[in-house]
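Today's session is about reading a structure prediction critically. Students often jump straight to the picture, but the first step is always the sequence itself: look for stretches that repeat, for charged clusters, for runs of hydrophobic residues. Only then move on to the predicted structure, which in these notes is written as discrete structure tokens rather than atom positions. Here is the chain we will use throughout the hour.
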Amino acid sequence: MLSVLILGAAGAHDRSAPPSSLSRSRVLQHQQQSTRGDALATVQCLRGGGGDKCDVILVGCGVPKRGMGWYHAKQMLDGDVPSATLTTVVEPWFLGQGKDSPPGQTFGVWAEEMSKAHGTKFCASLDEVSINGPTMALISGRTADNPRLLKEVIDLGCTAVYLEKPGAPTVKELEEMRAYAKSKGVQVFMGYNKNVTPYVRKALEFARKQKGETTTTYYHNNAYTPDELPECFERNAEGMLKNMAIHELALLATYWGVTVDNIKSVTPDAAFSECKTLTGPGGKQFTDFAKVGFTVETKDGKTITLMIDRCGSDSGGNSIAVVSDASGKELFRAETPDAALSTKVAEAAAKDPEMMPYFFLQHDDYITLKELSSSHVIKGAAGAPEGMATIDVAVDALKVAEYLTPLLQDALK
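Below is the predicted structure for this chain, in token form.
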């Protein structure tokens, strides 16, 4: 049996290669055709044989129905990820100083139930973790802790890591993490779910098949009201491009090869964009974008536009990919959530209103990322699964975010 410790990062892959038809649809098709009883057949279909599963160690869980780590755990324990077995959950706070708090007590009840039902080990420290054989780690805690945790799990013996975005607070820290993982021969995958989301993959496939020149525009709309922006700016003090828009910047790095070094020009959409200085609830001022639009042209002639709006939706948020011809005529549009997914999410939320709504919205994407990474480890393959973001992508996306923020703010003054 292979062991996988999931932390949230990924290894390098060829970002210049065109996207193939492999996507989460392939994974989910096999999942839908099988029951948990014949999960082995599903795994064999996905990777061409073999019955081993990856052991997964989750570092950072959080409160049931609220924490992202908890939802990762739930999906693996529910059998939704055919190639992964969650063996250990490391939760320093709720199994440590926060054990007796109300959330800690809730976590404790759930942990005891899962331990009895699945034999999952729960512990407060990585010192209590045993690893046998190749291992992948999934880190889902505070971004500021990732540099330390990455080194600790690698030193523990992990051979692959899965990191939640953006991976680290700064480019410098993320580059140091990449260098350390590379020196130890450890693959690092990133949990950038939009890389495998259907609306993105459909638009990429459509654009790839066109004979003439096309451009792609990515729209990302959140559902804040203007009155909520001061708190939003304070809570997301790293800024829009390092937070909300980092998913789109990862798409640009993965599929369009966008890096700081190959950007030829950046053209702000002044009519659309709005940069504000607001006073947060804590009394400190923050300058950030309420919305921002811009077009990036690369030195090899690729043109991509982003339109990011914190207050662009009144129904929970949405994301859109539009492919246009050289004249600007729209040729193709894909959106998430679409009508079917919106209905599914609404029904699920009504049944379980305590659950974070975005878990339902991105449920399938989370499964895809864990299945792609865990099956990749089983194969012992180099690089990363097609379409999955790596720590190289994360570095490039974060560099572009740091480059664009002052540039756009100055241009919009």
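Discussion point for the tutorial: The longest strand covers residues 285-298.
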